[in-house]
Amino acid sequence: MSTHLHIDDRTRQYLNIAYSKGNTSLEKSLLDDKLDLILKTRIRDYMNRGKILINGQLIEKRKGVLEDYVMREYCRDEMNFDRYVEIYNRVLKENRIYEKKLLIDQDTLRTRGNRIPESMSCLWKQGRMLRYYDIAGRDFEELLDTLALQNYKDTQVSTLKFIRLYPELMAMYDIRDQYELHNLLKKIIDPKDYNDIQFNRQPIITFGEFDRKKMAYEAICALSPVSLKDLVNYMEEEYGYEPLVFQANVLNEFSQFYHNGIYSVDFKKIPDDKKDILREKLTQDFYYVDDVKKIYRSLFPKEDIEAINPYSLKSMGFSVNDKYILKNWESGASFFKYLLTKDDITDLNELNKKFSVLRGFHNVSLDVRKDYEVIEFEPGKLINIRRLIKAGYAKEDLRQYCDDVDEFVEEGYFTIASLRKNGFVSKLDELGFDDRFYATILAVDQRFAYTKAFHSVILYKGDRSKEITKTSFISDRMKDYESIDLDSFVDEIRNDYGLKDLNREDVKQVADNTDLYYDSIMDKVYLNERYYYEEFDD
Predict the structure, then answer these.
(1) Are the C-beta atoms of residues 384 and 340 closer than 8 Å to each other?
(2) Which of 77, 385, 465, 491 has CA 20 to 30 A from 179's CA?
(3) Are 505 and 499 in contact (CB under 8 A)?
(4) Which among 486, 507, 536, 378 is positioned nearest to 45, based on CA atoms?
């Protein structure tokens, strides 16, 4: 270190003899007013000996850190890996970084091509395409709750299904296609929480034991007679299979059922003497077809299970979907709406366990919430509007609440707690619900965006194209300061927004992935490193 501080041997020997070694850190020594500017500069240069200044930011001279920096600064839009490597090497050379170990050359190209797809700073997809994506800075609770992958078993889906099924959710998380979603899910989920989940070649995910030929045959039976076009469209909607791929790789095995553009099978029938017995056993309004087959087999072990098919079930008076049957209901939509609205209080979590894999259930669930037929007042708990009507409140009051909030808040972030802290009052306050109830009312209004973070709902009014994440929230809040003690910063956010679960590590994590700078010795957060060093120069 003496070399970096320009201390000659004679001076160093004198200091060792005349003084005992102290315990003040180099970082704290920079705050000593008695230290002259030249020595401060040398100490600072020594502390930064392993860093390089790029565009005003001090970046550690480590390949992984430099790769993440280049992604963040230059890969906001997708590009192929070769182009990324060109930019990475150019940035290093422009900043006079010539160490071979830091460059990506032919010797390290394959290694980095394996490492970067696993990075938590990007989404990677087919064609070796990537773009920057701040995975650590997002809360994926709503995404995972909505997809409910834990409810899938012994099946296979393409993530294209979820892209088509949940367009608003994908927009909220800035997920642009099925390949990005596949890569993201692979990085954020714990496989042990799911039913033997396997991430196959993008965009396919398999759960447990799966027989694709059996699946295709059951689909043909469920829809028969069905045109080729309708069949492949169904497989695209239900499983996410791309039509041309499914037609080429799967349907060629079922040519015996195909004639003049139509797939058709000869259905086996349930013997008449068995129908009444089965009908008496099927007492509920809803059954999955697979469950009907299990019941039939338990009643008649020697009978052909293929007798349970759409034709035979329709002949018994059931409304038949490809995956389920209904008793006393003409459509799944009407049945699902009944389930979601029949009670004053509904446990959505329980319904999701059984129905979340069905596209129709999600659509109805979304519709009744958008129309304020039900409102989420606790996580996974819905209250019916008629309960509010009994208390003297109507849908018009909910819409007026949104209008009042829109008029009250300026552009930026807010929470229900911050609204109240700033003096907002509403007749709905008399209901006394938790903040989740009021946030849910606003979240379905197109004037507001939101994200779920820190076990709360953070809302935003303004540019709808802006990414709303916990990272953007903390970064924008920091713009009010040049620097601030970390504990003070956390306390202010907690107090201003009511985010009791926000902690120090959340802010430090954001600083690691943005221009914010956190100094562990000073325990302070700076808007960027420039403000950090200016503090020592003052």
Answers:
(1) no
(2) 465
(3) no
(4) 536
**Residue 91 and residue 404: Cα distance in Å, rounded?**
49
Q: Which of 7-11, 185-189, 454-458 has the lowest mean pLDDT?
A: 7-11
69 vs 73, 121, 176, 388, CA distance in Å?
A: 6, 9, 22, 51
Q: What percent of the chain stands above pLDDT 90?
A: 60
Amino acid at 412: G
User: What DSSP string describes 447-471?
Assistant: TEEEEEETTEEEEEES-TTS---HH
Rounded average pLDDT over 120-124: 94
Segment (H or E) for 518:
strand 517-519
Buried b (16+ CB within 10 A) or exposed e, 263-293: bebebeebeeebeeebeeebeeebbbbeebb
Which H or E run includes 207? strand 204-207
Q: Token pair 């059931």 is at which residue? A: 318
DSSP SS3 for 74: helix
Average pLDDT of span 120-146: 91
From the list 133, 102, 105, 103, the residue with the least C-alpha distance to 117 is 133
Give residue 258's pLDDT band: very low, low, confident or very high (50, 70, 90): very high
Q: How far is CA 5 from CA 30, 44, 91, 264, 534, in A?
A: 13, 10, 30, 85, 20
- Asked if pLDDT for residue 32 goes beyond 80, the answer is no
Q: Which amino acid is at 514?
A: T
Rounded CA gap, 124 and 338, in Å? 42
**Cα angle for residues 434, 438, 439 (degrees, 5° grid):** 105
Instruction: Name the token pair of 83.
Output: 């182009």
Q: Look at strands 204-207 and 197-199 and give their pairing.
A: antiparallel
Share of the chain above pLDDT 70, in %: 91
Nearest to 453 by CA among 439, 432, 437: 439
